[in-house]
## 1
Amino acid sequence: EVQLVESGGGLVQAGGSLRLSCAVAGISFDDYAIGWFRQAPGKEREGVSIISKRDGSTYYKDSVKGRFTISSDNAKNAVYLQMNSLKPEDTAVYYCAAERVYGSTWYDRRPPDYRTMDYWGKGTLVTVSS
């Protein structure tokens, strides 16, 4: 059974940091790109960052570049999102998602599409106060 379980969300002041974790079970990092989406109230779900071990590519949404860092730990079956210099506009529910990949993902030059993700976690709420 595939499971993606997020943790690490919470309330933080602007300028603060949080590290989100996604515990992954039932899939291989070699076969799946795994990343983070977020959805704020009244807004569409958007891709924040994704990493693909298959071709070594990573993607960051422009507004988080230089502030967020995605990483993965095969031994712990986990993917992390280190979020620094948080802003109120980062407030959202953050979801971990996985996409089966078969070749080049081009995630170094294009955003992930929530419609092509195969598995989702239930989300963790991040609230950034001003």
Note: The two ends are 40 Å apart (CA to CA).
## 2
Amino acid sequence: QVQLVESGGGLVQAGGSLRLSCAASARTFTTYPMGWFRQAPGKERDFVATITWSSSRTNYADSVKGRFTISRDNAKNTVYLQMNNLKPEDTAVYYCAAKRWSFSNLMYTAPDDYDYWGQGTQVTVSS
């Protein structure tokens, strides 16, 4: 079982930056693909970014390409989402997720692909 805890959310003005962190409880995290998703009120949970276990590949939603960067530090059991040039439409609860498939180098973009989820962290971007 992997427990995930997000942090780093908050209120920021448009054009600002935030860095989200997701700390995992188990060393097996280091072998799992990881993803970030977000969910705005009344909307479905949407894919934001994903990264392979070795950081060899990343993938982003079109809406965040060039502004967000996903990374991970396996020595710290942590995955990050650096968010720059934030826009009001980025306002949502952000969730990190882990897929229980060690050493996979595939890209996973659907919520159903993932097995473990954090509790979420709120990001609010004011205009």
Note: The two ends are 40 Å apart (CA to CA).
## 3
Amino acid sequence: QVQLEESGGGLVHAGGSLSLSCVATGRAFAMYFMAWFRQAPGKEREFVAAITRNGRNQYYAESVKGRFTISRNNAESTGNLQMSSLKPEDTAVYYCAADTGDISGAWQYDEVQEYDYWGQGTQVTVSS
């Protein structure tokens, strides 16, 4: 199994940028599909972005497309979410997630219940 730990959250003004990191320990990080989800107060956890094992393909929620960039470094067992042009509605706890699922089958990369491994989350607050 793999353990995940996020960092990099904080308070930023609207229009600003933040970079979140996810450090993985345990089994080889390259074995896992990786994603970021977020959960705002009173709302369900929602998909933000995902990246394939080799990093060649990325997937984004419509609400963040063009503003967020997901990446990973398997040699360092890290994942990253670069966020720019932040909006107050981006305020949430951001979670790193990983799973051995395969998008070539019925596995849904944008569904919370598909991921077995989660970090503890990092708070992102965007002020208006």
Note: Residues 46 and 66 are 18 Å apart (CA to CA).
## 4
Amino acid sequence: VQLVESGGGLVQPGGSLRLSCTASGFTFNRYGMSWYRQAPGKEREWVATISHSGSSTNYDNSVKGRFTVSRDNSKKTIYMQMNSLESQDTAVYYCYVWVFRDYWGQGTQVTVSS
């Protein structure tokens, strides 16, 4: 199993970014997937989850209404559109899947700063 994130960067408060996570090594359309983030000096925290089909999503309250997770099973990729970014969103963002054990991507840095 391999997960590769991309799309992070530096953005001003109020700006937007779209993260991507491309997967390989498992039957992608059978597994729900999640985004987590880890801010400096803090523990990794759950952000959002999307079901295997994409029909169901869940979000942490801190991002609800601002972030949208989606997936394209034909491309074995999930996305997270992040709008109205705040300084508190600064973190390394990780893609996660459980396929008989935990798998994590390498992470992509998101920095929200003026």
Note: DSSP finds no helices and eleven strands in the chain.
